[in-house]
Amino acid sequence: MKIIILGAGRVGQSVADSLVSERNDITVIDTDAARLRDLESRFDLRGVVGNGIEPSVLAEAGAQDTDLLIACAAQDETNLVCCKMAQLLFNIPTRVARVRSTGFHFDERLTGPEGFGVDRIICPEESLTRYIGKLIDYPEAMQVREFAGGRACLVSVRARAGAPMVSHTICELRESSPDVAMRLVAIYRRFPDEPDRFVACDGNTRIEPGDEVFVLAASGHIANVLTALHRRDARPVKPVRRIMIAGGGRVGLRLARQLSKEPGRFHIKVIEADAERCIGLASELPSDVLVLQGDTTDEDLLGGESVEEIDLFLALTDDDEDNIMSCLLAKRMGARRVLALINRRSYADLMHGTQIDIALSPAQAMLGELLAYVRQGDVQAVHSLRRGVAEALEIVARGDRKSSKVVGRKVSELQLPHEVHMGLIVRGLPDSPDVSPDDLREPEVIIPRSSTVIESNDHVVFFLPHKRLVREVEKLFRVSATFF
Question: Is the pTM of this model over 0.85?
Answer without folding.
Answer: no
